[in-house]
Task: structure prediction
Amino acid sequence: MDDLRAKYIDLIAAADSEAALEELRVAAVGKKGEISLKMRELGKMSAEERQVAGPALNALKDEINSALAAKKAALADAALEERLKGEWLDVTLPGRPRRMGTIHPISQVMDEVTAIFADMGFSVAEGPQIDSDWYNFDALNIPGHHPARAEMDTFYMHRAEGDNRPPHVLRTHTSPVQIRHMEAHGAPCRIIAPGRVYRADYDQTHTPMFHQVEGLAIDRDISMANLKWVLEEFVKAYFEVDNVELRFRASHFPFTEPSAEVDIQCSWDGGVLKVGEGSDWLEILGSGMVHPQVLQNSGVDPDEWQGFAFGMGIDRIAMLKYGIPDLRAFFESDLRWLRHYGFAALDMPTLQGGLSR
Ligand code: PHE
Result:
Protein backbone atom coordinates (compact mmCIF):
# COMPACT_ATOMS: atom_id res chain seq x y z
CA MET A 1 0.00 0.00 0.00
CA ASP A 2 2.86 2.34 0.78
CA ASP A 3 4.34 1.65 -2.66
CA LEU A 4 1.01 2.39 -4.30
CA ARG A 5 0.65 5.60 -2.33
CA ALA A 6 4.18 6.77 -3.17
CA LYS A 7 3.76 5.89 -6.87
CA TYR A 8 0.46 7.75 -7.37
CA ILE A 9 1.33 10.76 -5.23
CA ASP A 10 4.49 11.23 -7.35
CA LEU A 11 2.65 10.70 -10.63
CA ILE A 12 -0.10 13.11 -9.66
CA ALA A 13 2.45 15.72 -8.65
CA ALA A 14 4.16 15.34 -12.04
CA ALA A 15 0.96 15.40 -14.15
CA ASP A 16 0.89 18.45 -16.45
CA SER A 17 -2.62 18.34 -17.88
CA GLU A 18 -6.20 17.49 -16.98
CA ALA A 19 -6.06 14.60 -19.47
CA ALA A 20 -2.99 13.12 -17.74
CA LEU A 21 -4.77 13.47 -14.38
CA GLU A 22 -7.82 11.69 -15.72
CA GLU A 23 -5.64 8.78 -16.91
CA LEU A 24 -4.12 8.53 -13.44
CA ARG A 25 -7.57 8.58 -11.83
CA VAL A 26 -8.68 5.66 -14.00
CA ALA A 27 -5.46 3.76 -13.34
CA ALA A 28 -5.70 4.21 -9.55
CA VAL A 29 -9.34 4.45 -8.46
CA GLY A 30 -11.27 3.72 -11.69
CA LYS A 31 -13.38 0.54 -11.86
CA LYS A 32 -10.34 -1.55 -12.82
CA GLY A 33 -7.79 0.72 -11.15
CA GLU A 34 -5.04 -0.71 -8.99
CA ILE A 35 -6.59 0.42 -5.72
CA SER A 36 -10.06 -0.77 -6.73
CA LEU A 37 -8.63 -4.22 -7.56
CA LYS A 38 -6.97 -4.30 -4.16
CA MET A 39 -10.33 -3.53 -2.57
CA ARG A 40 -11.86 -6.46 -4.33
CA GLU A 41 -9.27 -8.73 -2.67
CA LEU A 42 -10.79 -7.76 0.71
CA GLY A 43 -13.42 -10.46 0.22
CA LYS A 44 -10.79 -13.15 0.19
CA MET A 45 -9.21 -11.98 3.43
CA SER A 46 -9.87 -13.22 6.92
CA ALA A 47 -12.03 -10.99 9.13
CA GLU A 48 -9.01 -9.82 11.16
CA GLU A 49 -6.98 -8.96 8.05
CA ARG A 50 -9.97 -7.15 6.56
CA GLN A 51 -10.41 -5.05 9.67
CA VAL A 52 -6.92 -3.65 9.14
CA ALA A 53 -6.72 -3.55 5.34
CA GLY A 54 -10.28 -2.22 4.75
CA PRO A 55 -9.95 1.15 6.50
CA ALA A 56 -6.38 1.52 5.23
CA LEU A 57 -7.46 1.02 1.61
CA ASN A 58 -10.39 3.42 2.05
CA ALA A 59 -8.04 5.99 3.50
CA LEU A 60 -5.64 5.50 0.58
CA LYS A 61 -8.48 5.91 -1.90
CA ASP A 62 -9.60 9.15 -0.19
CA GLU A 63 -6.03 10.41 -0.16
CA ILE A 64 -5.57 9.73 -3.88
CA ASN A 65 -8.93 11.34 -4.69
CA SER A 66 -8.10 14.50 -2.78
CA ALA A 67 -4.61 14.64 -4.33
CA LEU A 68 -6.30 14.42 -7.76
CA ALA A 69 -8.77 17.18 -6.87
CA ALA A 70 -6.07 19.45 -5.47
CA LYS A 71 -3.89 18.96 -8.55
CA LYS A 72 -6.85 19.61 -10.82
CA ALA A 73 -7.54 22.91 -9.08
CA ALA A 74 -3.85 23.83 -9.25
CA LEU A 75 -3.75 23.11 -12.99
CA ALA A 76 -6.88 25.28 -13.53
CA ASP A 77 -5.32 28.11 -11.52
CA ALA A 78 -2.13 27.88 -13.55
CA ALA A 79 -4.11 27.92 -16.81
CA LEU A 80 -6.06 31.01 -15.68
CA GLU A 81 -2.83 32.68 -14.59
CA GLU A 82 -1.32 31.96 -17.99
CA ARG A 83 -4.37 33.36 -19.80
CA LEU A 84 -4.46 36.51 -17.68
CA LYS A 85 -0.79 37.10 -18.45
CA GLY A 86 -1.50 36.74 -22.18
CA GLU A 87 -4.52 39.05 -22.08
CA TRP A 88 -2.97 41.65 -19.80
CA LEU A 89 -4.39 45.09 -20.33
CA ASP A 90 -3.69 48.40 -18.63
CA VAL A 91 -7.18 49.68 -17.89
CA THR A 92 -5.76 53.03 -16.75
CA LEU A 93 -4.63 53.89 -20.29
CA PRO A 94 -6.73 56.61 -21.99
CA GLY A 95 -9.33 55.23 -24.44
CA ARG A 96 -8.55 55.39 -28.13
CA PRO A 97 -11.47 57.13 -29.90
CA ARG A 98 -12.81 55.03 -32.75
CA ARG A 99 -13.12 56.86 -36.07
CA MET A 100 -16.79 56.91 -36.91
CA GLY A 101 -17.10 59.89 -39.19
CA THR A 102 -18.17 63.38 -38.21
CA ILE A 103 -21.38 65.34 -37.97
CA HIS A 104 -21.87 67.51 -41.06
CA PRO A 105 -21.87 71.25 -40.24
CA ILE A 106 -25.45 71.53 -41.57
CA SER A 107 -26.66 68.84 -39.16
CA GLN A 108 -24.70 70.49 -36.37
CA VAL A 109 -26.27 73.89 -37.09
CA MET A 110 -29.77 72.37 -37.32
CA ASP A 111 -29.18 70.80 -33.89
CA GLU A 112 -27.92 74.11 -32.51
CA VAL A 113 -30.89 76.05 -33.92
CA THR A 114 -33.31 73.45 -32.58
CA ALA A 115 -31.73 73.58 -29.10
CA ILE A 116 -32.04 77.37 -28.97
CA PHE A 117 -35.66 77.57 -30.15
CA ALA A 118 -36.68 74.57 -28.03
CA ASP A 119 -35.48 76.58 -25.04
CA MET A 120 -37.95 79.33 -26.06
CA GLY A 121 -40.84 76.86 -26.29
CA PHE A 122 -40.79 76.11 -30.02
CA SER A 123 -41.33 72.55 -31.19
CA VAL A 124 -40.13 71.10 -34.50
CA ALA A 125 -42.54 70.58 -37.41
CA GLU A 126 -41.88 68.97 -40.78
CA GLY A 127 -43.42 68.94 -44.23
CA PRO A 128 -42.81 67.16 -47.54
CA GLN A 129 -40.00 68.23 -49.87
CA ILE A 130 -42.24 67.56 -52.88
CA ASP A 131 -45.36 69.66 -52.40
CA SER A 132 -48.29 70.93 -54.39
CA ASP A 133 -48.22 74.43 -55.84
CA TRP A 134 -51.10 75.20 -53.46
CA TYR A 135 -48.95 74.77 -50.37
CA ASN A 136 -45.78 76.19 -51.90
CA PHE A 137 -47.44 79.22 -53.53
CA ASP A 138 -51.21 79.86 -53.55
CA ALA A 139 -51.89 79.25 -49.86
CA LEU A 140 -49.00 81.62 -49.12
CA ASN A 141 -50.76 84.34 -51.05
CA ILE A 142 -48.56 83.92 -54.15
CA PRO A 143 -51.04 83.60 -57.06
CA GLY A 144 -50.07 82.18 -60.46
CA HIS A 145 -49.26 85.51 -62.08
CA HIS A 146 -47.26 86.80 -59.09
CA PRO A 147 -43.65 87.77 -59.94
CA ALA A 148 -42.42 85.98 -56.77
CA ARG A 149 -43.31 82.69 -58.45
CA ALA A 150 -41.09 83.37 -61.42
CA GLU A 151 -38.30 84.68 -59.19
CA MET A 152 -38.14 81.46 -57.22
CA ASP A 153 -36.49 79.39 -60.02
CA THR A 154 -38.83 76.54 -59.19
CA PHE A 155 -38.21 72.87 -60.10
CA TYR A 156 -41.49 71.43 -61.41
CA MET A 157 -42.28 67.72 -61.23
CA HIS A 158 -43.37 65.89 -64.38
CA ARG A 159 -47.06 65.09 -64.91
CA ALA A 160 -48.25 62.20 -67.06
CA GLU A 161 -49.41 63.07 -70.58
CA GLY A 162 -52.99 64.33 -70.54
CA ASP A 163 -52.93 65.07 -66.79
CA ASN A 164 -53.74 68.76 -66.71
CA ARG A 165 -53.56 69.33 -62.98
CA PRO A 166 -50.89 71.84 -61.97
CA PRO A 167 -47.58 70.04 -61.38
CA HIS A 168 -46.12 69.42 -57.94
CA VAL A 169 -42.93 71.30 -57.15
CA LEU A 170 -39.77 70.76 -55.12
CA ARG A 171 -40.57 73.19 -52.33
CA THR A 172 -38.72 76.46 -52.86
CA HIS A 173 -38.88 77.41 -49.17
CA THR A 174 -39.99 75.98 -45.82
CA SER A 175 -42.98 78.36 -45.63
CA PRO A 176 -45.49 75.69 -46.85
CA VAL A 177 -44.94 74.02 -43.46
CA GLN A 178 -46.67 77.08 -41.91
CA ILE A 179 -49.85 76.20 -43.80
CA ARG A 180 -49.66 72.47 -43.18
CA HIS A 181 -49.02 72.96 -39.48
CA MET A 182 -51.86 75.44 -38.90
CA GLU A 183 -54.22 73.31 -40.99
CA ALA A 184 -53.44 70.26 -38.84
CA HIS A 185 -53.10 71.86 -35.41
CA GLY A 186 -54.75 75.29 -35.55
CA ALA A 187 -53.82 78.14 -33.23
CA PRO A 188 -52.09 78.95 -30.93
CA CYS A 189 -48.80 77.44 -32.10
CA ARG A 190 -45.07 77.95 -31.82
CA ILE A 191 -42.91 75.91 -34.21
CA ILE A 192 -39.74 75.87 -36.21
CA ALA A 193 -39.47 73.82 -39.41
CA PRO A 194 -35.92 73.07 -40.55
CA GLY A 195 -35.37 71.25 -43.83
CA ARG A 196 -34.24 71.04 -47.43
CA VAL A 197 -35.46 73.43 -50.10
CA TYR A 198 -34.74 73.61 -53.84
CA ARG A 199 -34.17 76.32 -56.43
CA ALA A 200 -32.58 76.13 -59.89
CA ASP A 201 -29.50 78.21 -59.14
CA TYR A 202 -25.78 77.39 -58.92
CA ASP A 203 -22.76 79.55 -58.03
CA GLN A 204 -20.48 80.20 -55.06
CA THR A 205 -23.40 81.23 -52.85
CA HIS A 206 -26.24 79.21 -54.43
CA THR A 207 -26.80 75.45 -54.77
CA PRO A 208 -29.92 73.79 -56.25
CA MET A 209 -30.61 72.19 -52.86
CA PHE A 210 -30.07 74.12 -49.66
CA HIS A 211 -31.55 74.42 -46.17
CA GLN A 212 -33.88 76.79 -44.39
CA VAL A 213 -35.51 76.96 -41.01
CA GLU A 214 -38.99 78.42 -40.81
CA GLY A 215 -40.34 79.95 -37.62
CA LEU A 216 -44.01 80.48 -36.80
CA ALA A 217 -45.65 81.81 -33.63
CA ILE A 218 -49.41 82.41 -33.56
CA ASP A 219 -51.45 83.53 -30.58
CA ARG A 220 -54.00 86.25 -29.72
CA ASP A 221 -51.59 89.12 -29.23
CA ILE A 222 -48.22 88.25 -30.78
CA SER A 223 -46.54 91.31 -32.29
CA MET A 224 -43.41 92.48 -34.12
CA ALA A 225 -41.94 93.20 -30.66
CA ASN A 226 -42.08 89.49 -29.86
CA LEU A 227 -40.45 88.73 -33.22
CA LYS A 228 -37.60 91.14 -32.43
CA TRP A 229 -36.99 89.66 -29.00
CA VAL A 230 -37.04 86.07 -30.22
CA LEU A 231 -34.64 86.82 -33.06
CA GLU A 232 -32.28 88.78 -30.81
CA GLU A 233 -32.20 85.95 -28.31
CA PHE A 234 -31.59 83.51 -31.14
CA VAL A 235 -28.74 85.46 -32.74
CA LYS A 236 -26.94 85.99 -29.40
CA ALA A 237 -27.24 82.32 -28.46
CA TYR A 238 -26.33 81.02 -31.90
CA PHE A 239 -23.26 83.21 -32.46
CA GLU A 240 -22.35 82.80 -28.78
CA VAL A 241 -21.97 86.55 -28.15
CA ASP A 242 -23.36 88.71 -25.32
CA ASN A 243 -24.61 91.53 -27.48
CA VAL A 244 -25.48 92.06 -31.12
CA GLU A 245 -27.43 94.76 -32.94
CA LEU A 246 -30.17 93.65 -35.31
CA ARG A 247 -31.44 95.83 -38.15
CA PHE A 248 -34.99 95.33 -39.38
CA ARG A 249 -35.25 96.57 -42.97
CA ALA A 250 -38.71 97.07 -44.45
CA SER A 251 -39.24 94.51 -47.21
CA HIS A 252 -41.97 92.63 -49.02
CA PHE A 253 -43.16 89.03 -48.95
CA PRO A 254 -46.63 88.10 -50.19
CA PHE A 255 -47.25 85.99 -47.06
CA THR A 256 -46.34 88.59 -44.41
CA GLU A 257 -47.56 92.13 -43.74
CA PRO A 258 -45.63 94.09 -42.64
CA SER A 259 -42.43 92.34 -43.76
CA ALA A 260 -38.85 92.87 -42.72
CA GLU A 261 -35.49 91.52 -43.71
CA VAL A 262 -33.15 91.20 -40.76
CA ASP A 263 -29.45 92.09 -40.79
CA ILE A 264 -26.95 91.38 -38.02
CA GLN A 265 -24.16 93.71 -36.94
CA CYS A 266 -20.67 92.52 -37.87
CA SER A 267 -17.12 93.56 -38.65
CA TRP A 268 -14.74 92.29 -41.31
CA ASP A 269 -11.57 93.53 -39.59
CA GLY A 270 -8.52 91.87 -41.14
CA GLY A 271 -10.78 89.82 -43.38
CA VAL A 272 -12.16 87.93 -40.35
CA LEU A 273 -15.89 88.08 -39.74
CA LYS A 274 -16.94 88.98 -36.21
CA VAL A 275 -20.63 89.03 -35.34
CA GLY A 276 -21.75 91.57 -32.72
CA GLU A 277 -18.92 94.03 -33.42
CA GLY A 278 -18.21 96.82 -35.90
CA SER A 279 -20.50 98.72 -38.22
CA ASP A 280 -21.17 96.38 -41.16
CA TRP A 281 -24.40 94.47 -41.71
CA LEU A 282 -25.16 90.95 -42.95
CA GLU A 283 -28.59 89.82 -44.05
CA ILE A 284 -29.63 86.51 -42.47
CA LEU A 285 -33.38 86.14 -42.78
CA GLY A 286 -36.80 87.29 -43.97
CA SER A 287 -39.69 87.80 -41.58
CA GLY A 288 -42.94 89.56 -40.82
CA MET A 289 -46.43 89.33 -39.39
CA VAL A 290 -48.33 86.46 -40.99
CA HIS A 291 -50.71 87.85 -43.65
CA PRO A 292 -54.41 87.50 -42.66
CA GLN A 293 -55.07 85.75 -45.98
CA VAL A 294 -52.47 83.09 -45.08
CA LEU A 295 -54.19 82.47 -41.72
CA GLN A 296 -57.53 82.24 -43.53
CA ASN A 297 -56.09 79.79 -46.06
CA SER A 298 -54.90 77.59 -43.17
CA GLY A 299 -58.28 77.59 -41.42
CA VAL A 300 -57.21 80.01 -38.68
CA ASP A 301 -59.50 83.00 -38.02
CA PRO A 302 -57.46 86.20 -38.61
CA ASP A 303 -59.93 88.21 -36.46
CA GLU A 304 -58.92 86.10 -33.48
CA TRP A 305 -55.31 85.13 -34.13
CA GLN A 306 -52.14 86.81 -35.28
CA GLY A 307 -48.42 86.15 -35.18
CA PHE A 308 -45.05 86.27 -36.81
CA ALA A 309 -43.11 84.08 -39.21
CA PHE A 310 -39.53 84.05 -40.38
CA GLY A 311 -37.37 82.07 -42.77
CA MET A 312 -33.63 81.77 -42.35
CA GLY A 313 -30.89 80.20 -44.51
CA ILE A 314 -29.23 77.45 -42.50
CA ASP A 315 -26.29 77.04 -44.89
CA ARG A 316 -25.68 80.75 -44.71
CA ILE A 317 -25.57 80.99 -40.92
CA ALA A 318 -23.39 77.84 -40.87
CA MET A 319 -20.90 79.52 -43.23
CA LEU A 320 -20.90 82.67 -41.10
CA LYS A 321 -20.38 80.91 -37.77
CA TYR A 322 -17.81 78.35 -38.87
CA GLY A 323 -15.91 80.41 -41.45
CA ILE A 324 -16.80 78.24 -44.44
CA PRO A 325 -16.08 80.23 -47.62
CA ASP A 326 -17.81 78.25 -50.38
CA LEU A 327 -21.37 76.95 -50.11
CA ARG A 328 -20.81 74.27 -52.74
CA ALA A 329 -18.30 72.44 -50.49
CA PHE A 330 -21.21 71.48 -48.19
CA PHE A 331 -22.51 69.09 -50.80
CA GLU A 332 -19.35 67.63 -52.32
CA SER A 333 -18.83 64.90 -49.67
CA ASP A 334 -15.07 65.50 -49.64
CA LEU A 335 -13.85 63.51 -46.62
CA ARG A 336 -10.95 65.89 -45.96
CA TRP A 337 -13.41 68.80 -45.83
CA LEU A 338 -15.77 66.85 -43.57
CA ARG A 339 -12.94 65.95 -41.17
CA HIS A 340 -11.90 69.60 -41.03
CA TYR A 341 -15.33 71.19 -40.63
CA GLY A 342 -17.23 68.24 -39.11
CA PHE A 343 -18.20 67.83 -35.45
CA ALA A 344 -17.67 64.98 -32.98
CA ALA A 345 -20.51 62.50 -33.32
CA LEU A 346 -21.34 62.27 -29.62
CA ASP A 347 -21.30 65.98 -28.76
CA MET A 348 -24.93 67.08 -28.94
CA PRO A 349 -25.22 70.87 -28.77
CA THR A 350 -27.09 72.09 -25.68
CA LEU A 351 -27.49 75.53 -24.21
CA GLN A 352 -26.19 74.29 -20.86
CA GLY A 353 -23.22 72.31 -22.17
CA GLY A 354 -22.28 74.78 -24.89
CA LEU A 355 -23.48 74.82 -28.47
CA SER A 356 -20.29 74.36 -30.44
CA ARG A 357 -17.69 73.31 -27.85
N1 PHE B 1 -39.95 82.08 -47.41
C1 PHE B 1 -39.11 83.26 -47.48
C2 PHE B 1 -37.94 82.97 -48.42
O1 PHE B 1 -37.67 81.83 -48.71
C3 PHE B 1 -38.59 83.67 -46.14
C4 PHE B 1 -39.67 84.12 -45.21
C5 PHE B 1 -40.30 83.22 -44.37
C6 PHE B 1 -40.05 85.47 -45.14
C7 PHE B 1 -41.30 83.64 -43.49
C8 PHE B 1 -41.03 85.89 -44.27
C9 PHE B 1 -41.65 84.99 -43.44
O2 PHE B 1 -37.24 83.87 -48.84
In short: The first strand starts at residue 123 and ends at 124. Residues 173, 175, 253, 256, 286-288, 309-311 surround phenylalanine (CB under 6 Å). The chain has two domains: 2-86, 104-344.
